[in-house]
Design goal:
The protein starts with a strand and ends with a strand. By secondary structure, the protein is α+β, with helices and mostly antiparallel strands. The chain contains 8 helices and 23 strands.
Length: 413
């Protein structure tokens, strides 16, 4: 039997685990802890999985969710709101400092509890019905949730019906992935990994869609639409493809969009890179011509249809292009006044290199990021190319998780 070890938590790592060191210099990860706390527990594989708190931090609070001890959906609910906000801001500054970049934080916009309008749930068929929720920490086991302090009330209300869907549509071995999004028309649900459709299963799914009042249910690419699952983007109404990426909360989207619109005010021609369904392109089209570039054709088709049906927008064009493999070259960017870019977590190294090479053309780049480390890498390349970086706006849409988003502006000339 391994003896317990007592350790002091030095800091939190990128994934929200406490980081401590043994007397021998071994780094140990300790979940659900805060800096300055003294903990004890058994070390296995460099981790104390179930720490006992000996001395608690003044920032420790009682998590309000009954699933928190087991569910992996939230990792920082034991920290005060003030602590989590400071830690997220500091994580951005730390990533930038590692690249030799000094920066200041303009502020942090934290989405309120129960504001997640989009979530990816997991489901498995069980002996008695279905299990539906998020994975447990460090596990592929699904925690069956019946309440949640993150999800919007409409999604919570639909959980019993979605659990019935899992029971009916999951095989004995496969895990269902359920992407659910709330919109003005109701819930939009895309399910992957389910059993093949049969007349009987189709009838059951239709009953579930009725019980949950779903706007659309997409079963492994087969849509069952009761109402058009529109999302509002500025003056436009867009019908995203099933399971499409959208900002996680309306409040977070508004915070990001406000910074982008203010930064690009007065621009006549804007290029929107990694444009998706039009989160930024369509609101910007109220005052500027926009060229939206995205690697997937389906989101761009939805953007285009939304633009064509909206009133009072300037011209919007689209281009399907893998920007990681084929970034817009410096000479292709010449005809634009400004750029907005919202890359995936891997960042936009290739596109940053082309932006850094610019000597004419756009003088402003609004850069939205969902990963501080890849952003810091790309920011270094931009600064090396002569761009100046404004203050950083931190946006916390994923409350109580380690995930953090930023938006800033690079200026040239």
């Amino acid at each position: 039997m391994t003896a317990s070890t007592t350790l002091s938590i030095d800091r939190l790592g990128r994934r929200g685990d406490g980081v401590a060191r043994t007397a021998e210099g071994q780094t140990v990860l300790v979940p659900l802890t805060l800096p300055g706390e003294v903990v004890t527990g058994e070390i296995r594989d460099g981790r104390i999985a179930a720490p006992a708190i000996v001395t608690a931090s003044a920032d420790r609070v009682t998590p309000p969710c009954p699933h928190y001890a087991d569910c992996g959906g939230c990792l920082l609910m034991h920290g005060s709101d003030g602590f989590v906000a400071r830690w997220k801001a500091d994580s951005v500054l730390t990533a930038l400092a590692a690249q030799g970049i000094g920066a200041t934080i303009a502020g942090i916009a934290t989405s309120p509890p129960r504001s997640r309008r989009r979530a990816v749930l997991s489901g498995r068929r069980a002996k008695k019905g279905g299990t539906l929720g998020f994975h447990a920490r460090q596990s592929d086991r699904i925690v069956d949730i019946h309440s949640c302090h993150v999800l919007r009330p409409a999604i919570l209300a639909a959980l019993p019906a979605l659990r019935d869907l899992v029971a009916a549509g999951a095989s004995r071995t496969a895990e269902l992935v359920l992407t659910v999004t709330e919109g003005p028309a109701g819930l939009d649900l895309a399910v992957s990994g389910g059993k093949p459709l049969t007349p009987a299963l189709s009838q059951t799914l239709a009953a579930v869609a009725e019980a949950a009042d779903l706007a659309r249910l997409d079963w492994d690419g087969v849509p069952m639409t009761r109402r058009a699952p529109v999302q509002r983007m500025g003056r436009a109404q867009v019908i995203p493809p099933p399971g499409a990426f959208l900002q996680a909360t309306a409040e977070g989207e508004a915070a990001l969009r406000a910074v982008v619109r203010h930064a690009l005010k007065g621009a006549a021609r804007v290029v929107d890179l990694f444009g998706g369904c039009g989160t930024f392109a369509l609101p910007l089209a109220e005052t500027a011509e926009v060229h939206a570039v995205e690697g997937l054709a389906a989101p761009l088709a939805a953007l285009d249809q939304g633009w064509r049906k909206a009133d009072g927008l300037k011209r919007v064009t689209t281009e399907t292009r893998d920007l990681a493999a084929r970034p817009l070259l410096a000479d292709e960017l010449q005809g634009f006044d400004a750029v907005v870019i919202d890359p995936p977590r891997s960042g936009a190294a290739a596109q940053a290199a082309q932006l850094a090479a610019l000597r004419d053309g756009p003088t402003r780049v609004a850069w939205v990021s969902c990963d501080p480390v890849s952003f810091a890498r790309d920011a270094k390349r931009m600064i090396e190319g002569g761009w100046r970086m404004d203050q950083i706006h931190v946006v916390d849409q994923f409350r109580w998780s380690p995930h953090v988003e930023t938006v800033t502006v690079f200026r040239r000339g």
